[in-house]
Design goal:
The chain is an alpha/beta fold. The protein has a single domain (2-241), classed as TIM Barrel (Alpha-Beta Barrel). The chain is built from eleven helices and eight strands. It has helices at residues 11-24, 39-49, 75-81, 91-97, 101-113, 126-130, 134-145, 151-156, 175-192, 213-217, 234-241, and strands spanning 2-4, 33-36, 54-58, 83-88, 117-122, 158-161, 201-205, 224-227. Strands 1-2-3-4-5-6-7-8 form an eight-stranded parallel β-barrel, surrounded by five helices. Helix 2 links the parallel strand 2 (33-36) and strand 3. The longest helix is centred in the last third of the chain and has 18 residues, at 175-192. The protein binds 1,3-dihydroxyacetonephosphate. 1,3-dihydroxyacetonephosphate binds at residues 4, 90, 162, 167-168, 205-208, 226-230.
């Protein structure tokens, strides 16, 4: 269960959140708990949860190792700050910052090389869904974002299906709609990397909330959630992590 905090929370707020979270989820064994603060809070959050069952990730990275790339952060720098995961190609990055499948692919490789698990985001817009091009769009995103990986890299990464029309809108995909696309993603993935498709984890994101999480997680190809709004309040995020008790 991954909480994408997007551009929210100061360093103090981020640390205070995980301080409360760590006690509440200390008994959780079967769910990987991940939080994605802003770059500047990652290290402070990591120091608060080091060695515990909460892992820290970043929301982006740049594929070069170092150099004159003003404003960017490399995979090795994220590793140094304590990040073990990184979100790549989130629809907000595609929409506002010009991220495309080709750059997503470079970032996936840089993350893998530095032993950081990439969570690669794909998803169609409302227009694309209405035009019945969802599967075509998803196929292109999966193939191009995830090309030329080793079998090992391919089995370790995580894919997040986030229909753009469901993000921050309160409109969740129905469990059936989500399952249909998840199964399709696994199928495409199996064509690319035969043995990795069973191992790859596919998260659903888009208005996941404590009251709809259980139905979504029951679907056979939904392996977890990538949550924005409902991950910002600690009580709500705890409920999501403990969804099996809902
Ligand atoms: P919401 O849960 O706020 O819809 O955001 C989803 C998301 O973009 C997670 O990455």
């Amino acid at each position: 269960m991954a909480g994408n905090w997007k551009m929210n929370k100061t360093i103090a707020e981020s640390v205070s959140f995980v301080h409360m979270l760590k006690t509440a989820v200390s008994d959780v064994k079967d769910v990987d708990v991940l939080v994605f603060p802003t770059f500047i809070s990652t290290n402070a959050v990591y120091n608060e949860v080091k060695g515990l069952n909460i892992k820290v990730g970043a929301q982006n990275l740049f594929w070069e190792e170092k150099g004159a790339f003003t404003g960017e952060v490399s995979a090795s720098m994220l590793k140094d700050a304590g990040c073990s995961y990184v979100l790549i190609g989130h629809s907000e990055r595609r929409q506002y910052f010009g991220e495309v499948d080709k750059t997503v692919n470079k970032k996936v490789k840089a993350a893998s090389l530095n032993d950081i698990v990439p969570i690669v985001c794909v998803g169609e817009t409302l227009k694309e869904r209405e035009e019945n091009t969802t599967f075509k769009v998803i196929k292109k995103q999966v193939k191009e974002s995830l090309s030329d990986l080793s079998q090992e890299e391919a089995s370790k990464l995580v894919i997040a299906y986030e229909p753009v029309w469901a993000i921050g809108t309160g409109k969740t995909a129905t469990p059936q709609q989500a399952q249909e696309v998840h199964a399709f993603i696994r199928e495409i993935y199996s064509q690319l990397y035969k043995n990795a498709a069973d191992k790859v984890r596919i998260l659903y994101g888009g208005s996941v909330k404590p009251d709809n999480v259980s139905e979504l997680m029951k679907q056979s190809d939904i392996d977890g959630g990538l949550v924005g709004g409902a991950s910002l309040e600690v009580e709500s995020f705890i409920k999501l992590v403990k969804y099996f008790k809902n």
